[in-house]
Amino acid sequence: MSGPKLVAMVAYMEHKNLANTTIGEQRARGIADGVHRVQERIALAEAAAGRQEGSVQLLAATKTRDVGEVMAAINAGIRLIGENRPQEVAAKVEGGLPDLCSQQGLVLGDWACDEDDIPSQQTVGFHVIGQLQSNKINKVIHCVDTIESVDTLELARKLAKRAQLHGVSTGVFLEVNESGEEAKSGCAPEEAEDLAFELAQLEGLRLKGLMTVGAHVDDERIIRTGFAHLRDLRDRILSSRQLGTAECTQLSMGMTQDMEYAIAEGSTEVRVGTAIFGERAFI
Length: 283
Ligand SMILES: *Cc1c(COP(=O)(O)O)cnc(C)c1O
Hints:
Elements: H1 3-15, H2 25-48, E1 57-61, H3 67-75, E2 80-83, H4 86-94, H5 97-103, E3 107-108, H6 113-116, E4 123-128, H7 137-140, E5 146-150, H8 153-166, E6 170-175, H9 189-200, E7 205-211, H10 220-240, E8 250-252, H11 259-264, E9 269-272, H12 274-277
Parallel strand pairs: 1-2, 1-9, 2-4, 3-4, 4-5, 5-6, 6-7, 7-8
Pyridoxal-5'-phosphate is lined by residues 61, 63, 84, 129-130, 213, 255-257, 271-275.
Cofactor: pyridoxal 5'-phosphate
InterPro entries: Ala_racemase_N, PLP-binding_barrel, PyrdxlP_homeostasis
Protein name: Pyridoxal phosphate homeostasis protein
């Protein structure tokens, strides 16, 4: 991470107590309205694309939001959250997010649903969606069920090893830099297929899908081309029938600005922060 960005991150974590659990009634209502508005946008986009209602999951991107704000989103119906930074995962877990979920009859992290018959309505999936440095794996491996931002074989191997040590099976998405923008993480599109086949074979990991961040441009055609390319890649991986690829069904693409385009191109999960919680006061 670059110098100024790191300073800004430290600054906001000092400014804002992310473990705070109290929230004003008006703020909680604002967040609930945000959740419902985004759910409506998703339903409209599904219908416009001729897709089945409910085929796109909504992940709330909770960076810079405190435990009280995250719980307001969960109470409004959010069943999947994503954090960018390991420090924030730790702050919110220590701030009591798992306990607050369990008070609502919900399990935070959905590792268990296949094996233990917990209906998915009763779990809140917990993902990492930001760049993960390998020295931070231990901070998150026992808290989150899925890492969406895996973009090298080296990171995947380290994750696999840690997951096995902890006796968990960690879900992973391969992140692909479809736009080629330099500031973005993600592997190069040309490398993605081979990399996916390698990840799929690692014991301790389950390859669940692919993730990308849309091009940072105004041109609908350019943004959609990147999303369409990710969908084609997913289809090729699935139809390869290679070892460990059968679960690689998900496409995590689309954010506040471009979720309609992503849904039109086959997204199964949109990651939304601003349209739920409002503008971020910090990066
Ligand atoms: C912040 C973030 C989002 C959500 O962005 P919004 O524009 O606030 O909806 C989605 N994905 C990633 C990787 C993010 O960092």
